[in-house]
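Memo subject: From amino acid sequence to discrete backbone structure tokens
Action wanted: Derive the backbone structure tokens from the amino acid sequence.
How to read it: Take the token row as a discrete description of the fold.
Attached in line: The record itself begins immediately under this heading.
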Amino acid sequence: MDTLDAPAPPSLDDSAAVFGVPAEAHLLKQVIVHTPGQEMELVAPDNRAELLFDDILFVGNARQEHLLMCSVFEKIVGRPDTVLQVSDLLLEAFEKEEARYAFVEKLCRSLPEQNLGAVEGELKQFSPSDLQQFALTGESDLPIRVQPVPNLMFTRDLAAVVHDHIILSHAATAARTRESIIISVILNYHPRFAPHSDKVIELPPGVTFEGGDLLVASPDTVLIGHSERTSYSAIMAIAHELFERTQIEHVLAVDLPKRRATMHLDTVFTFASPTEAIVFPPLLDTHGFGYSVHLTAGDTPGRFVTDMRMNLRDALKDLLERDLTFIPCGGSERLHQEREQWTDGANVFAAAPGAILGYERNRRTFDRLHEHGYRVVSAESFLSYFDSGTFDPGGEKVAIQLAGTELSRGRGGPRCMTLPVARHATPHGS
């Protein structure tokens, strides 16, 4: 039996609600996660493919691994409200009747094939806790069958924060539609976020976008993967909003193979520090798949100037005011690169510049990180070492290994499981 409970919800503090991600790998302030729960217990052999899972997780162990990851974040950041749990935020948002009504109405409208309109009135009468349970698991006493949302653990795909704005996802698959509704209700009704609802960017109907495809490369440059989950029309819509609302001047639409192994840009490319990136090497090959379309704002609102960049390495060299060191996922041999990319070797999460988490199983990636000056430690050893002290984000570089035996079976790494809502303005804090 799983006896390790998720952290208690943090106290409400509206001062912590302001969005702010000026660039990847800056010191983290606050992150939204979802520790796997009862919804994951409902993934079965018969429905796992429909729910986008290749395997069935041992949920008790997955929870412990996830909570260990959260403890590492809290130690690195050093503040009590570092980690926000989706389940807590949703329950607190549902304390407002208007939030419950908005959730039910949007759910019925977005998934008409599930015939939820027949029980809309009953759903609106649910208590906050009953509706939260229904939202996560699909379970209730009503005579309807609704699937759970096990992919909620991959909170990165719910939205993406760029500077002081947050872009809501448009899920590419019906299995994840309810997740988009959940994050929308949290951002618009939770006391922590509602005062900043003017900073929420909602994309037009008909486009698809998931947050794993967006990386803030610098304060003026964003990378967006054109993947199986994010449409080019969504990239155009995001570029328009960012050019209008933020200081972003460059958007690179990076072409990806439209397949599961490369479902998002962060499956092949993530930042470890402001000057280092973990990369699946074919992305940077001269004749690889990573060509990009460079978008800048035109003279007329809503118009763009575009130019084709045949190689991502060269495009980043032109646009960024710094040199990047590319650390190969899986090392130098193509077979190992492909194996470790498949097991999320390129999907690391930077909680601070040069303080990253990845799955232990990707040992050749960690070997390369060690060659680039990283001290490689387990998550348990990291927490033990700093048990009575504080972590200095400006000190040595550290690559933290998360065992992830169960979490990795969900097909998403530490970056996939984290939605940062705030980072410091400067890399090491301000």
